Amino acid sequence: MALSKVGVVATAQTEFRPAWNNAQHIDLISSVVTSVFKGSGLTIDDVDFIIDSGSDVLDGRSISNCGFLGALGAHHKEEARVEEDGLWAALYGVNKIRSGSSSVGLIVAYSKPSESNVDLYWNAQVEPFYQRPVGFGQRAANGIMAQRYLADSGLSSRDLADLVADRWAAAAASGKVSIDDLPDADAILAAKEGAAPLTELMFARPVDGAVAVLIAREDIARRVSRNPAFITGMGTSMDTHSVAAREAGRLSSAATAAAMAYRNAGWASADADIAEISGSSVIGELLAIEALGLAEAGKGLSAARDGKVAINRSGGALPADPIMATGLVRLAEASRQLSQPETSSGGTPRRAIVHGAGGVGMQNNCVFTLEV
Amino acid sequence: MGRHVGIVGVGQTHHARRRTDVSQAGLVREAVDRALADAKLSMEDIDTVVVATGPVLFAAVNQPEKWVVDAIGAQGKSVVRLTSGGGAGFAGALAGYYQVAGGFSERTLVVAYDKLSEGQLQYSISTLYDPFWGREFAVGIMGFSAAYWRARMDVLGHTEEAAAMVAAKNRKNAIANPYAHVKKEVSVDDVLNSKPLCWPIKLLDVPPISDGAAAIVLSSEKMAHHSTSRPAWIRGMAYCCEADNAPERSLMLSEPLAIASRQVYRAAGITNPRRQFDVVEVQEPYSCFELNYYESLGLCPPGQAAELIASGATQLDGDIPVNPSGGCMGANPIGAVGVIRLIEAATQVMGKNESHQIKDAKTALVQSGGGWANLRGCAVLSA
């Protein structure tokens, strides 16, 4: 059977701040769950299921979804917790609607890393016997990837800093990210070392926030939404655990995920108008751009800044990385840019690529294609 | 409706209080090997993988699917992990079901596990509670469950004797389960006289803490015949919840389980569960919960669970055996229990159960859940 279309009917997200000091998790969650319905023509009663993403480790709480079910609007409904970035929760939701058992689903992802030790979150992910004792984690993985990338591509740290500055400027222009001091390339280069050759500001910045996406069967989406974006392809792939054992200089699992998504959608990356990409660092973003087929190996930088496909008009993950929610934010951003271009970055884009990542060194990758 | 999905291969470890010979990755590999062999497949035949575990604080590895992916042999494939407390395995299987039913996959491997000996279980569970209002006085999940049981004692007649009958039944059934590690017959009096841990919960009302893994292969209708001539088809499956602080939460019937069962029975064409099911497998974190499930699943009216267990109908030789495998009383690797219940039910309708095959079993009911007794699901399987 041909896979039926599932549409993105509405989205809502909080402002992304380094610390939402005056809000708890349930406040962030309930604010997006209540606001996603505004103007949508649907209410919480129309929702068949809720699928959510979050991390027990970041929350410091076992079965953390258990304490948030009321805020999620999940009372007496089907609920599932996907403990991976929110784009995987959306994948689950789309499959559930496509199975025919449900019509409308609410996908929610949230993050409050300001209350956590983010380094511990990453270090607790690596193999506990041989890698964890030496303190391996996200910083070291991205630093190693960056050293390889710069050596192979001939790029300099200045090139990386320029791209990071562009992303922060785009985020500032969007008004969705709280930024105290907008850094320029010099400030990025001068920032504290994250993991050589990357400075702290070259890594995705953890922020607090939440996002909700309302998805529905095609006929419902067309009825309630003026110009819904439809999810036409999905792909996901997980690489081997050891960073050292992965294919050097290439995010092979992102390439596999992209190929799966493009095959389902029936078009390729060159046909896309926009892309929203999650990168764990500026190097992660460049590698993802190349893996998605938007640039040749080592040439991600020119595609990132001046490519035919507009990449990360929202700023992407570098200025704002609500850990566990970033990929769902990318989906929300892309669907808004397609459905409401007049209020969202302009132009008339019709096709989008959305990328979400998880794990140390972007071990897990998920790609969606969207169309209006 | 979407595509039909069947269970075509099953495998589980020999569960133990502590497995010192393998890491978490080794546990997973054992279950996967057995499920693939049972399905006559290799990893090359699998499209997607779902991993499920209890809370990661149990065994102190965050996002463990990213470590065990290599042990599974799933590098390069779609891998995602689900978690839902004690119901994690069931929630993972449900996600796997939708990957096939929704056309994302032809064959999905679901592997669920916990290695509880590597963590401090009750301490980890205590972090379940609200950090401001609940955590200062909560101790694990036993206190909550005891209060839950106490309330139902008065309203629904869930007596200590009735729960003791559950414990005696399940522990006896576990003796013949080759995968269980607690194999000791106890009498009702033994249970009643065992040490109170958090009254009315007594020592023999409580299942063990286990290391273990379980895996199933889910297949589309088109591909199922490559693995078995008798798949266990999933006729209906749902997993519902109740907000932890909902003001109308009564803690008598399990409302999320009742809601899930209505959805599932409608999908599966079940109109009289008491008569139509040949066998039932439920996840009883304490003996008293099995009584609650009888009522919430509609196997008897509210207030009659004690009569049902006393009648002997849920015994092996009764007309609706519940937990022929022994349930959690024989082995309780929390995150894996939901998949184990599915395995024990699937093998019944496939005609190859290794514990106590119920003769001519064609339709099975499975229940699983977690959280503060507020995450509950069920499924109907038939040949």
Description:
Chain A is built from twelve helices and twelve strands. Chain A is an alpha/beta fold. Chain B is of the alpha/beta class and 383 residues long. In chain B, the strands form two sheets. Chain B has a nine-stranded mixed sheet. A two-stranded antiparallel sheet of chain B has the order 5-6. Classes of the chains: A alpha/beta (372), B alpha/beta (383). Chains A and B meet through strand 3, helix 3, strand 8 and helix 9 of A and helix 2, strand 3, helix 3, helix 4 and strand 8 of B.
Supply the key terms.
heterodimer; A: 372 residues; alpha/beta; 10-stranded mixed beta sheet; two-stranded antiparallel ribbon; 12 strands; B: 383 residues; 9-stranded mixed beta sheet; 13 helices
The gross shape of chain B turns out to be globular
Structural class of chain A: alpha/beta
The low-confidence parts of chain B are none
Average pLDDT taken over every residue of chain A: 96
Rg estimate of chain A, integer Å: 19 Å
Low-confidence stretches of chain A: none
Count of DSSP-assigned helices of chain A: 12
Largest sheet of chain B: 9 strands, mixed
Integer-rounded radius of gyration of chain B = 19 Å
In which order are the strands of the major sheet of chain A placed?
A: 3-2-4-7-1-8-12-11-9-10
What does the oligomeric state look like here?
heterodimer
Strand segment count of chain B: 11
Task: Kindly summarize this structure in a few lines.
Chain A is an alpha/beta fold and 372 residues long. Chain A has helices spanning 25-35, 56-59, 86-98, 118-123, 138-153, 157-174, 185-190, 218-224, 252-265, 282-291, 300-306, 326-339; strands spanning 6-13, 49-53, 78-82, 104-111, 193-195, 198-199, 209-217, 229-238, 274-276, 310-311, 351-358, 364-371. Chain A is 34% helix and 19% strand.
Secondary-structure blueprint of this entry?
The complex is a heterodimer of chains A (372) and B (383).
Chain A: E1 6-13, H1 25-35, E2 49-53, H2 56-59, E3 78-82, H3 86-98, E4 104-111, H4 118-123, H5 138-153, H6 157-174, H7 185-190, E5 193-195, E6 198-199, E7 209-217, H8 218-224, E8 229-238, H9 252-265, E9 274-276, H10 282-291, H11 300-306, E10 310-311, H12 326-339, E11 351-358, E12 364-371
Parallel strand pairs in A: 2-3, 2-4, 9-10, 9-11
Antiparallel strand pairs in A: 1-7, 1-8, 4-7, 5-6, 8-12, 11-12
Chain B: E1 5-12, H1 24-38, E2 48-53, H2 65-72, E3 78-82, H3 88-101, E4 107-115, H4 121-126, H5 142-156, H6 160-174, H7 188-193, E5 196-198, E6 201-202, E7 211-220, H8 221-224, E8 232-241, H9 255-268, H10 273-276, E9 279-281, H11 287-296, H12 305-311, H13 337-350, E10 363-370, E11 375-382
Parallel strand pairs in B: 2-3, 2-4, 9-10
Antiparallel strand pairs in B: 1-7, 1-8, 4-7, 5-6, 8-11, 10-11
Helix pairs in contact in B: 1-2, 3-13, 6-11, 6-12, 11-12
